[in-house]
Design a protein that fits this description.
The protein is of the alpha+beta class and about 300 residues long. The protein contains 9 helices and 5 strands, in the order ααββαααααααβββ.
């Protein structure tokens, strides 16, 4: 892992730990029942996670209940809810648990929740608690960009990509569902009194589950003709990279960095054929040099 990535991860984790210590030292609860309910619903929503295409990260609808908790719960409670949501999302059915990754994810969510809560309440002043809809919208407007920026930055540093490129890719997949979540949460927060906000949260639960099922079906619903091309495309790319390394006399064991970008575009070709245009760019490095190569190929196969 690059040194700047390690430094960045350490800073974010340290910030998260500091916020947790402050929350622990200033703990107070307005309603233990509401806190427990929001904690449970946020943790439950965190299990409804889907992988963001092309990235080793996931998204879940836990933000809906996290934002609702900012309207009714106190600062320390929101921090604990955010921590629990992040831990469940990272650990639930994880194929491989990495302590650093789990710690960073939890810290990033805690930092985002802390900033969103503090900024929204500061801007609306003491009367913010009586303005649930503006408060929730403001909190969401701060939470999404910050959380996306924190996650995009670590991915870009670790994988040596552009932060802007990674952030745009995150927004493309997350933003529409986030806006939908804020819309429903805003309607619910305005329809119920603060002391009865838990009823709105329960009312939102089926909507959150239906939204998750819709997103999960879209992420896994690759068209049949694209599925049919996936295996031969992967083999073609593997062969190309193997031959390119051999042509440049670069042993695999000498690589210190490797980045592969693949863009596939599908269309309907002539004579009842599917057509796929594949554009690949590889960037590999050894201790002494960097190598860059490109491949463009078009393949057709019958319906």
């Amino acid at each position: 892992m690059p040194r700047n990535a390690k430094t960045y991860i350490a800073i974010v984790i340290a910030a998260g730990v500091a916020i947790l210590l402050f929350a622990a030292g200033s703990w107070s609860s307005a309603s233990a029942r509401q806190f427990a309910l929001f904690l449970g619903l946020a943790a439950l929503a965190s299990t409804c996670k889907v992988k963001i295409p092309g990235m080793e990260t996931t998204m879940s609808p836990n933000f809906v209940f996290l934002l609702l908790s900012m309207v009714t719960c106190r600062f320390a409670e929101v921090v604990v809810i955010g921590l629990a949501a992040a831990l469940v999302q990272s650990l639930w059915r994880a194929k491989k648990v990495r302590a650093v990754q789990v710690s960073f994810s939890a810290a990033a969510l805690v930092v985002s929740a802390c900033f969103a809560y503090s900024a929204a309440h500061f801007l609306l002043g003491r009367g913010g608690a009586e303005l649930p809809v503006p408060l929730l919208i403001l909190a969401g407007a701060f939470y999404l960009p910050l959380n996306t920026a924190l996650v995009a930055a670590v991915i870009a540093l670790v994988e040596r990509k552009s932060v802007g490129h990674v952030a745009r890719a995150c927004y493309e997949h997350v933003f529409p569902y986030f806006i939908g979540g804020i819309l429903f949460a805003g309607l619910v927060s305005g329809a119920f009194d603060r002391t009865a906000a838990w009823k709105g949260a329960l009312l939102l639960t089926p909507v959150v589950v239906l939204g998750y099922l819709y997103v999960a079906s879209r992420k896994s619903g690759m068209p049949h003709h694209q599925q049919a091309f996936a295996a031969p495309a992967a083999e073609e790319i593997r062969r190309w990279m193997h031959d390119d390394l051999a042509a440049n006399k670069i042993p695999v064991t000498a690589l210190t960095h490797a980045l592969l970008s693949v863009n596939l575009s599908f269309s309907e070709g002539p004579n009842k054929m599917y057509r796929c245009q594949m554009e690949c760019t590889s960037n590999v490095a050894t201790e002494t040099a960097d190598y860059r190569a490109q491949l463009t190929e078009v393949q057709d196969w019958p319906f």
